[in-house]
Write a structure and sequence with these properties.
single chain; Photosynthetic Reaction Center, Chain H, domain 2; alpha+beta; rod-shaped
Length: 253
Amino acid sequence: MTMNDLAAWKGHDVVDPSGDKIGRIEDIYLDEQTDQPEWLAVTTGLFGRRISFVPFAEAQAAGEDLTVPYTKAQVKDAPSAEPDGLLTEQEEAALYEYYGLPYSDAVSDTVLPTGAGYDTAAASGTVGTDDAMTRSEEELRVGTRQREAGRARLRKWVETEHVTATVPVAHEEVRIEREPVTDTNVDRALQGQEISEGVYEVTLMEEEAVAGVETVPKERIRMGTETVVEEQQVAADVRKERVEAEVDPDVRR
C-alpha cells in the first residue's frame, strides 16, 4: 500500500476471519523511523468509544474492509494504550506479547526507545506528497433524544364529609280568640242548650327538618400534556491537535 492508500482506509471496518465486524479504523500508527504502518487503532466496546490496537502486519484487504487473524474478543481484551498518537516502548511491548509476536527492546527501525512513539500522520491526512500538516480538533455536537421521565394518572376515591345546614320549619300554636255577643251574632250564640258542657278540638300541625342525599354530576376531569422548554447544560471533553516546530539549535531560522 502507498501512503495515500493508508489514509484512505480510515473509517473502514476491520473484520475477523469469518467476516464479523470487529470495529472501525480510527487511526493508523506508523513507525517513526520507517514510515511503515505498524498498528491499527480500532474503535471497539459499547457505542465504539474504546480504542483497541491491532497489528497491521497481518491485515489483508477484503473489498471495503481489512481482515485480521484475530477475533473481536481478542482485540477488545488487548492491553490498553492511550490513543494520543504515540505508543511508548512499554505499551508496544505489552501489545506484542499479547498478540504473540516477536519483540526486541533494542532500538531498530520497528522498535523505538522509551518516550518515542508512532506517528499518526497517515490517518490524520498528512501522508502524501503534500508538504503541509493538517491540524484537526473535535467540536461539541449537541442534540436531544426522547426518554420516559415518569407517569401520571388520575385516581378517584370516595371520602365522607359531615355537612350541616339550617332549614326553616313552621308549626301551629293555639291562640284563644274571644268574640263578644252583639246583635249580629246573637242568633248563633243562642243556638243549643242554654247551659251545657262540651269539647272543641283543633289539630295542630308543624314541620320537621329532614335530610337526604342525591348524586349530582359536578364536572368532567381529564389529563393532557403540554410541552415546556427549559435550558439544560451538557458537557463533553473535546480533543484538539496542537502543532509546534522543533528545530535543532544549529539550524538557521
